[in-house]
Amino acid sequence: MEGHRRRPPRTHLHAVALTSVADSLVVTTGQLIVVGLAVAVAAFVQVIAGFGFGLLAMPIMTLAIPVEKAVVVSTLLSAITTSWQSWFMRKDADPALVKRLTISAYLGMPLGIAVLELAADGTLKIALGVAVLVATLMLAARLDLRHAGPGVDMAAGFISGVLSTSLSTNGPPLVFDLQARHLEAARFRATISAVFALCNVGAIALFAFRGKLTQGGLHAALVALPAWALGQLVGWPIRKHMHGQRFRVLVLALLGLAGATSIVFAVV
């Protein structure tokens, strides 16, 4: 009869329901193992260098879970790390730099949410990788911004805010800015940790407002907590040995590795 609509097969409806559930949950042990490995390695590096959680966790996690879900996991666990680190190292932070970088980062966060929702995963990863490699080369050339005005900090903070909510890899612009200003290791770690901690609050709030805090992301973050704790415990005793030229080499190596990894994972 005209106007009669054919019902979808019951099996089709069942498949749609299963797809919806799978999308909201981290459903396999293999995925959880990959997420846990990523978190342990990233937590270890974060303690030693003062940054690098998202840079290392994101490329590994996106091998197993979508970028949109990995961003949430990375931001939630990074918030725990940077909050206690910034409190522990608060006396060494540069208040003026923290203020400029944080305010400008918050201005960039809404744009990052829009990028996350509109841009393709591969495009985001390639853009991030290229930007990180360019920044690494500039730092390796010992670019000196100690006498530059606050506009450099504001630009770095804004880009960091965009990356925070789009890829949870907001470290490179901040690292570039603070390294180019030649901050010594303790001041670098304290300042960048304070900015990360403050920015994570805004990023999580935006994720919640936009409905990005899914059951799957929260589940993965909870399961990865033991791996995060392990990385922290192993990294803390080594941290005191990383300073001066050794610290600079570590920063450059991490940035170069992160940039190259991001591009490789985008094209393979």
Compose a concise summary of this entry.
The chain has 268 residues and is mostly helical.
Write the layout of secondary structure elements.
Elements: H1 10-24, H2 29-49, H3 53-61, H4 67-88, H5 95-118, H6 121-140, H7 150-166, H8 171-180, H9 185-209, H10 215-223, H11 225-239, H12 244-267
Helix pairs in contact: 2-3, 2-4, 2-11, 3-4, 4-9, 4-10, 5-7, 5-9, 6-8, 6-12, 7-8
Description:
The N and C termini lie far apart (about 50 Å). The N terminus is likely disordered. The longest helix has 25 residues. With about 270 residues, this protein is mostly helical. Helix 2 packs parallel to helix 4, helix 2 packs parallel to helix 11 and helix 4 crosses helix 9. It has one domain. It has twelve helices and no strands.
Protein traits:
268 residues; 12 helices
Largest sheet: none
What are the segments in which pLDDT stays under 50 over at least 5 consecutive residues?
Answer: 1-5, 10-27
Strand coverage percent: under 5%
The chain-level mean pLDDT equals 79
